[in-house]
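DATA SHEET
Item: assembly model
Revision: 1
Owner: S.N.
Input lines:
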Amino acid sequence: MMRSICRSYQTFLIICNSHIRRNGKRATSSVSWRTHNCGQLRASDAGSKVTLCGWLQYKRFDFMATLRDAYGVIQIVLPEDEVKRSLLSSKLSEANLESVIKVEGHVQRRPVAKINSQMPTGSVEIVAGELEIMNNCTETLPMQVHEHLNVTETTRMLFRYLDLRSSRMQRNLRLRSDVAMKIREYLWKKHGFVEVETPNLFRRTPGGAKEFVVPTHQKGLFYSLPQSPQQFKQLLMVGAIDRYFQIARCFRDEGSRPDRQPEFTQVDIEMSFVDKECIYNLMEGLVKYCWPEHLPDVITPFPRMSYQKALDEYGTDKPDTRFEMTLVDITAILQGCGIAIFESSPSSNFIIKAMTCPSGDKFLTKSTVDILQGNCKKLYNTNFLLVHVREKSWKSPISKHLSEKTKKKIMDTVGAKPGDLLFICAGPRETVNAALGFLRLQCAECLEEQGVRLRDPNSYKFLWVEDFPLFLKSEETNGGSDLESAHHPFTAPVVGEEHLVYSEPVKVKGQHYDLVLNGVEVAGGSIRIHHSDLQKYILEEVLKEDSSEMSHLLEALQSGCPPHGGIAMGFDRFVSLLCGERTIRDVIAFPKTSEGNDLMSGAPSSISQEDLDRYHITVPSGDSGS
Amino acid sequence: MMRSICRSYQTFLIICNSHIRRNGKRATSSVSWRTHNCGQLRASDAGSKVTLCGWLQYKRFDFMATLRDAYGVIQIVLPEDEVKRSLLSSKLSEANLESVIKVEGHVQRRPVAKINSQMPTGSVEIVAGELEIMNNCTETLPMQVHEHLNVTETTRMLFRYLDLRSSRMQRNLRLRSDVAMKIREYLWKKHGFVEVETPNLFRRTPGGAKEFVVPTHQKGLFYSLPQSPQQFKQLLMVGAIDRYFQIARCFRDEGSRPDRQPEFTQVDIEMSFVDKECIYNLMEGLVKYCWPEHLPDVITPFPRMSYQKALDEYGTDKPDTRFEMTLVDITAILQGCGIAIFESSPSSNFIIKAMTCPSGDKFLTKSTVDILQGNCKKLYNTNFLLVHVREKSWKSPISKHLSEKTKKKIMDTVGAKPGDLLFICAGPRETVNAALGFLRLQCAECLEEQGVRLRDPNSYKFLWVEDFPLFLKSEETNGGSDLESAHHPFTAPVVGEEHLVYSEPVKVKGQHYDLVLNGVEVAGGSIRIHHSDLQKYILEEVLKEDSSEMSHLLEALQSGCPPHGGIAMGFDRFVSLLCGERTIRDVIAFPKTSEGNDLMSGAPSSISQEDLDRYHITVPSGDSGS
């Protein structure tokens, strides 16, 4: 049994050890009672006097135990001497599992027959001379550390302090810390960046609908918690802090959204005297520098793709380029062939596209297809048309309306083979792209669930997406404008297209760029506007916003503002990809639920009348709104 | 004139250069348009083609200029070629001072007669081949960068982006960043600490009267912004993150207090399996490691002083040990001598003490003494009695009541010489200590204002203050208890005094320690309670607090909690001492006024009805409270 418990720590130990190796010899037992941690002793240490501290992982007949800490597990045995043995044994018998214990003793080699090669410390054991129970654990814990994977996420969050002891959470938090430090080392030490802390208590930004507010002693006046240090970093550029970074806490009040947190961390970067290429270079170097050693090497430079190409071929601005199944335009082939749905909306924006699901005929059942059709209708208000490509024929409602020549042409164009499924959509370009992009990812998941190795789990595909439009048609009319910024109002137009801002703003491309990793946006940034006139025109005339609230920025832009640009990396998301976790909650020490609740402490909570008075606010009684 | 402007940058440049030297060669021009910064070119670079970017610091006849960036200044000259010269000259003539300019050219040695030895780049100049005005500065700036010292702090804060260009703010922010990075390097790389980010949106802590609150979508429920990560770091210890640190943003709503900020930064540290000595070792190493090279070396270990001795000798728990003028007990000498004020309160707590101001007779005028007397009355509700020590006599109201023998005895005890002033206070011990401690510092300032070199500005005296009482008599009665924690309720009693908690809590000393530098508390911490029973007893029975709000912590303490302790360093304060600044506002990029206002952006500000509704709060009309 001991062997099996030890084995459950195997993966953890391998990572821990590679971890320590990677980062050189860090003194984990300096300035401490312990002389070594529980993972580091080897046969060559035999004879050494040691003091170890850790959690009681397992005990056997009160004379043998394993002690665990964040670095590993080690076997403890009681001495042969009967008096001593009986004294220590009675101590050990009082200790429940997960109690915290200090052991003083010496290292001894295990007999060859008892060497456990699964355990890094498996060739030695500690003969205890002294044993102290520093904190006895209650007998019944709400969850067992080694059963962490079998309990619900709610239990894990309620008892986070137990969940953190699991090898998985230890690895995640330690890797996160290492990556953050590597990023800082790269920016500060290699490139001369200055880390500047910017305020969290700030002024509400115009249109900042997702900002938390903080009441103050000054009646009716509120701070707001910024969504990013955007304004500050631009002001720092004006202030000659020409290379700024910060691993910054940001706040966003999005209500309940899956895998979002009301507070999150971003690696925030801004530089003067740069263009897009400089930022790309910097970031590619950064990713390489902080990349964990146990993952396959990153290849730079990263490929680039235009926003339009990403939409056309992948149906999304954050394409997962680990696999094909791209969207193919077959408008020219199908239009005019007499099928009603391909003719119904002959606007300039009308398009017919296909996405091929390889071997879909085998792996996608009728009921799966029905679910996909339902979701497609619900999310995009459109339907797809399905073609089962068979050896000699098509199985499809449109099969009989098409000549063999047309079918052949389609097959050649999309590259389909017998056994594949073709998803065909027709309609406005945006809808078709979005729906097929969604279907592409859904089909991929479906294939993988059935064992098809479509995306290599060890593949890390970075991609720059660029050439975004500067403005998008707004869904709501914001203060009279029908345009909104695709990124944010401070993004500069592409060089040479500045004049279009004044004449045809919807045609301007922005100097905005996103860094996508395996279909997830991990960073985004832009070259900023550094001329006051242009910034003012965009705020007032294009976006119809009240620029008076941004007067400090506009003034700064006419006080000698260097050309500048930057980027922000979603650090939680990036680390979760490195850890292979599906949710950012697993790389955050104390996360909140998607409803924003901290289950462990019970935040948020009600506050006293005294507090309400102190901040001059009241909570009106009555039905509880949203 | 150019020479004088350059000279004003002298100190800055020396610091910048030592700075760059200290931190090895950081690439400040990697991934950038510039090939060099404005401070790095030397005679050995002559002939190199360079591109420089910076702010136009000065120009002369439109054919000579100095360009400035964060790293230095350099002289630009236009080429001899007349066509080229006239073209560039007309560009230069359009640029106002503080405009941002890009210059491409080559480095040339200056003629010997024109070498400026005051300027690090003073042996070269750049012959411009191309010159581009990247951002023309408005003609009239609200403040000039080189006049930064002559403008009010209000102007500096209103136009912080200009103030940041000053050599002083550049030095302060860059030094701050360096010290933070060194601290991280020390903890992470040398001692295996893990940096963990803890939440800023948390649950209100019991008795946390200074916590800002944040309304949520959940009606009547609020987050609160924590004053420190105290609870989280203890939970991390329970969770086997045995070496935690964080350079953490903390929040404290103290209303208007001079030199406090509603948000501040602390270096937060916690370790398992340690005692006080371990923390002292760690911190002494940390201070040495991050200590700026241009300051005199730090000597470790730091001296230690008990809380009681600090109060008795310096009248404060954060003594400035750079100078003497300690408080001396003369009760035994003066009691019974027949002077009424020395007899009036014969309680066990009554004390008579003296503090000697050397040469005070010469440097403290009558009006100064009167001001001190007034402040003493106002702040401590007591008076002092003054003795002018003269060659042969005393000038003092008590002189005629005392025998020469008594006077001699007093002089010997306090070590006073002719020309000194003796400040004598009598009354309850706490009052006397506090008043004389205050007078000691006031006298020191007064002497220094008149040129007496009492405290070496290059002296950095660290001191551990320890053996604090665990509980203090509370000024207000909190929920029925007349005791409050001297530090916080999680501090452990001194080993061996645990039993006193249950019998005579007021006699227990705590394992709390403060690190004091030059009379300023720069860090404080403690060994924590790691047994649930003791923690519960203290919360419920000693402090009479509702422990149910801390149930998650109490539960954690019985789930296998290692013995642990930690410390938190006030980072803003520490950096301000290193920079020789009197206020922490000068080491914060975007500080708020002591009223909590951000003058540049206008925070805090009013918010919309929509926002109020969103968070289910109202601001009642009526007179504007506090």
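QC remark: The first strand of chain B starts at residue 49 and ends at 60.
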